[in-house]
Amino acid sequence: MTDTSIGENRLKRAFNYRLRNNTIVDTSRNTFEGVLKRLESAFVQIIEKNRKKEIGVINPSVNDFLKEYLQKNDIERENIKENATEYEQIKRGFCENIEDIIRSGEAISYNYTDQNEKLYVILTYICRLEVFRDNYKYTVERFFKSFPYDCVEGMMGRCEIFIRLLSD
């Protein structure tokens, strides 16, 4: 799941997107709330952070269990990957596919923590991989218009991105 916690809205979006094509699930009920209630206290905990609900694992062993389960279950891993809505899902579970995602132009379709994370992640990879696709033009334009001052772990800094984009 995660090392820390994730916002309820992000988790709900990923959950609902994953279930959208599942014909077994009864969509007349709020499935997300029901599942969350069943998991609370046994596997997950709900905490309040900055007046918003976040969900995290109750114990690190839950993450260990899930990691082992997914390593042994290729079909489930593929289903998660195909239905991922969040960059965080890709980063944590499918980082080996990020270059393919960037090259295909799909990186803009994921949800990011915020606009700056989206800019820094996509621009770092297009600079490193020298991938310039038409659907990334808006991301580049937005970067130059806002020139955000931020830092995203493992990504290039704004000056390095700026220099790399101008040199290509």
Task: Provide a brief overview of the structure.
By secondary structure, the chain is mainly α.
What's the helix and strand layout?
Layout: E1 5-7, H1 8-19, H2 31-39, E2 44-49, E3 52-57, H3 60-71, H4 74-82, H5 87-93, H6 98-104, H7 115-129, H8 137-146, H9 158-167
Helix pairs in contact: 7-8, 7-9
Question: What tags apply to this protein structure?
Answer:
single chain, 168 residues, mainly alpha, 2 domains, three-stranded antiparallel beta sheet, 3 strands, 9% strand
Structural features, described:
With 168 residues, the chain is mainly α. It has two domains: 1-83, no CATH class; 89-168, no CATH class. Helix content is 54%, strand content 9%. It has helices at 8-19, 31-39, 60-71, 74-82, 87-93, 98-104, 115-129, 137-146, 158-167, and strands at residues 5-7, 44-49, 52-57. The protein has a three-stranded antiparallel sheet. Strand 2 (44-49) and strand 3 form a beta hairpin. Helix 7 packs across helix 8 (137-146). It is globular, with a radius of gyration of 18 Å. The model has no long low-confidence stretch (mean pLDDT 90).
